[in-house]
């Protein structure tokens, strides 16, 4: 029996869901694309590269980055959302509306770029930080939404505990537990830690496209116990509506993230920091940014 602990610390037992329609095996296992160091980062990798937006729908990319002295200085976005988990260290955030905050390990920031934002993501006090940033596409009707920032502290996300496992639910419904993120499109986001021998079954909507990424450790996934090692993803294709159970068994102490989303099934075109439906939409985003329609670009953040 799993146990659920809300942000107040209240502890409630959760009976295993009896309405799970299927147990899902990974469709494919993937590795990361190492990008290395750059002007902004000490090291980086594409966990999910923006190569086939139809196959990864509604997700565009997942970027893993390690940085300290520089980080990501002022830059724009339009047409999608960034979901950034702090894995290690502290992340400092600024935006051109005057917003500022510092996120700790296990915290998550959800930025709806919508019609346009300009922000900076920095290593707090120039100390090393590791992040995972997911780009979630928005449907055509939502691409010009009002920009929004949600700083979701780890302590504010409900915790589901299984045998040797602790899973923070940040968004959507997993195992009947609802995450605190306000959503424009149906997705689930969870951050999990396992002891060696720990296990958990992620119950998610069956029509979602989902994947997990092993940040550290190793697991066996699905009824066939497919091995997924550190630095690899396991993908689960969308099926019929209902509930899909994804079984995870840790063969050593493990940290992983789990994402799923309802496919949008619209044309998508990603270029630089913009994700629109086509090339003309991106051209308009560039024009609007250069003409100041995203607001002023600050000259400092320190």
Q: What's the CATH first level?
A: Mainly Beta
Radius of gyration: 19 Å
Major β-sheet, in short?
Answer: 9 strands, antiparallel
Count of helical segments? 2
**CATH-defined superfamily:** Jelly Rolls
Identify the overall geometry: globular
**What's the number of domains?**
1
The end-to-end distance, rounded to whole angstroms, is 48 Å
Q: Strand-residue fraction?
A: over 45%
- Enter the CATH topology name: Jelly Rolls
Q: What is the fold's blueprint, element by element?
A:
Layout: E1 2-5, E2 11-14, E3 22-23, E4 28-31, E5 33-34, E6 43-48, H1 53-56, E7 59-67, E8 72-77, E9 80-88, E10 91-95, E11 100-103, E12 108-112, E13 117-123, E14 129-137, E15 148-152, E16 159-162, E17 165-171, E18 173-174, E19 177-178, E20 187-194, E21 199-205, E22 209-216, E23 218-221, E24 226-229, E25 232-236, E26 243-250, E27 254-261, E28 269-271, E29 274-276, H2 279-290
Parallel strand pairs: 3-26
Antiparallel strand pairs: 1-2, 1-16, 4-25, 5-6, 6-7, 7-14, 8-13, 9-12, 9-14, 10-11, 10-13, 12-15, 16-17, 17-20, 18-19, 20-27, 21-26, 22-25, 22-27, 23-24, 23-26, 28-29
Briefly say what this structure is:
The protein contains two helices and 29 strands.
């Amino acid at each position: 029996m799993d146990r659920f602990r809300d942000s107040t610390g209240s502890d409630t037992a959760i009976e295993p869901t009896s309405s799970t329609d299927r147990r899902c095996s990974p469709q494919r296992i993937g590795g990361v694309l190492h990008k290395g160091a750059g002007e902004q980062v000490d090291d980086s990798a594409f966990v999910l590269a923006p190569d086939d937006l139809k196959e990864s729908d509604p997700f565009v990319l997942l970027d893993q980055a390690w940085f300290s002295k520089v980080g990501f200085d002022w830059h724009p976005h339009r047409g999608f959302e960034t979901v950034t988990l702090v894995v290690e260290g502290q992340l400092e955030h600024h935006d051109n509306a005057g917003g500022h905050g510092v996120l700790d390990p296990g915290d998550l920031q959800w930025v709806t770029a919508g019609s346009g934002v300009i922000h900076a993501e920095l290593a707090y006090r120039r100390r090393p930080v590791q992040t995972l940033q997911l780009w979630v596409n928005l449907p055509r009707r939502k691409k010009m939404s009002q920009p929004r920032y949600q700083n979701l502290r780890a302590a504010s996300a409900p915790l589901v505990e299984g045998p040797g496992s602790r899973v923070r639910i940040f968004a959507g419904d997993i195992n009947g537990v609802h995450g605190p993120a306000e959503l424009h499109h149906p997705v689930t986001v969870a951050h999990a830690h396992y002891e060696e021998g720990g296990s958990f079954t992620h119950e998610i909507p069956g029509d979602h496209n989902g994947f997990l990424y092993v940040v550290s450790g190793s697991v066996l996934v699905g009824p066939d116990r497919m091995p997924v090692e550190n630095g690899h993803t396991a993908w689960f294709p969308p099926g019929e509506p209902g509930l899909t159970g994804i079984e995870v068994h840790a063969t050593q102490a493990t940290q992983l993230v789990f994402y799923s989303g309802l496919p949008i099934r619209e044309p998508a075109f990603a270029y630089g920091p913009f994700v629109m439906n086509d090339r003309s939409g991106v051209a308009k985003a560039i024009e609007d940014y250069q003409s100041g329609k995203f607001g002023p670009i600050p000259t400092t953040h320190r």
